[in-house]
Amino acid sequence: MAEATYFRKGFGLKGEIEGQLSADYHSNLIETLRSRGYRLVVGPLTFRLAKEFGFCYGVDRAVDYAYETRRKFPERRLHLVGEIIHNPHVNAKLEAMGITFLHRTGNGGFDFDHLTADDVVIMPAFGVAIHDFERLKAIGCVLVDTTCGSVLNVWKRVESYARDGFTALIHGKHWHEETKATASQVTKYPGGCYLVVLNMEQARTVCEFIERGGDATALATQFAGAMSPGFDFVRDLDRVGLANQTTMLSTESLAIAEEVRRAMVRKHGETDAPLHVRTFDTICSATQERQDAVIELLRDPPELMLVVGGYNSSNTTHLAALCASRNVRTYHIEDSDCIDPVSRELRHRPIGLKQESVETGWLDGVRSIGITAGASTPNNKIGETIVRICSVAGAADLLDRALV
Predict the structure, then answer these.
(1) Is 134 a catalytic residue?
(2) Cα separations (Å) of 182 from 77, 121, 128, 237, 288?
(3) Which domains does the chain possess?
(4) Which alpha helices (DSSP H) does 26-170 contain, by range?
(5) Which H helix or E strand runs over 256?
(6) Which pLDDT tens digit goes with each residue over 71-109?
(7) H or E segment at 22?
(8) HEC profile of 312-346
(9) Which of 52, 159, 178, 384 is flagged as catalytic?
């Protein structure tokens, strides 16, 4: 009987890896904070944790599955396409387990030339583009697919648009692995096409062209890299279907969808507009829940917010932007190492920038601290952050008492 070469539903080894997962990612401090109504008082400091934070179901599943794969194939070479999720701590753990990461080369593609049918390849929670999947299948590798169910829902919607002759208009970051994979779904149908808009500003530019036309050459320059090959702005914007990268701000995705719908109504009338635009019901529940939890926490704003998670994590950066938009002093840090207990300085990535900054005096006079974390941030990294803050505040000894 031929060996199975595609796995998507796990290997039934959850019980064997639970201890290792707990050791790598669990935090007793966070469990205590959760049990006390998401609030912890440590001397003069009050920590408030958003009620939805950290690992979502899709990330949990992907990480579990990667650990199971190592256990299932102890003697095989294991590879991972890109990163399992956008968290440096988790990815470092996988590398330590002997999983080799496959990164994009200078031409933008993955180098699969050294892979053989004896290799096991893990596909990340973001999924992989169709052409990469087909290349791996052709090699004959054992494929372990951890693609998140919420991402798969978006793929189904985009595929249906292409099947019915609608352009997929995707709210996302065209360079992000998830959006690359989502956009590739249109290639299942001849003539399938897509256009990726980063934000409302770009969406309004597209809407302006839909309603009034304009300079298609200028648009092609503006959206270089964010559209399907041979995209024709006149032809391909006549019928569009909305989709989104699951980690974008859901409120902005919905607002963009409504903006496009209104543009089609103004151009074609209320009756005929549905023939030219389709909207979506694929907002990721985990992304929505984490954003809603932050909004709820900020109804009684703390003096500062810390958002913990990878700098290249889209959902984490959007949480930080959401906090800052509420006029709360916000710092996005990758993990507790960004807090120096000796110099008392804080390294953080300012909203919208690509480089870290160093802040001094960031904790001076602060008594209330709000904390949340992206969907790819493990609990132990959140707990370690609280420990570092207490150390900087000179309240390390009081933390132990607070946890009794």
Answers:
(1) no
(2) 28, 20, 8, 18, 19
(3) 27-56+286-402 (3.40.1010.20), 58-148 (3.40.50.11270), 150-245+248-283 (3.40.1010.20)
(4) 28-35, 57-72, 88-96, 130-139, 149-163
(5) helix 250-272
(6) 999 999 999 999 999 999 999 999 999 999 999 988 888
(7) helix 14-25
(8) CCHHHHHHHHHHHHCCCEEEEECCHHHECCCCCCE
(9) 178
Yes or no: say if 213 and 252 are a contact pair by the CB < 8 Å rule.
Answer: no
Give the count of beta carbons closer than 10 Å to the beta carbon of residue 285: 13
| Amino acid (1-letter code) at residue 288 | Q
Place of tokens 């990815």: 91
Could you tell me the two tokens for 239? 């019928």
Residue type, 333: I
Tell me the pTM: 0.93
pLDDT tens per residue, range 223-245: 999 999 999 999 999 999 999 99
Identify whether the C-beta of residue 305 lies closer than 8 Å to the C-beta of residue 331. Answer: yes
Q: In whole angstroms, how far apart are CA 295 and each of 124, 244, 289, 302? A: 29, 21, 10, 12
Closest listed residue to residue 353, CA positions, set 324, 326, 390: 324
Q: Is the distance from CB of 241 to CB of 277 less than 8 angstroms?
A: yes
CB 357 within 8 A of CB 330: no
What's the alpha-carbon Rg for the chain, to the nearest Å?
23
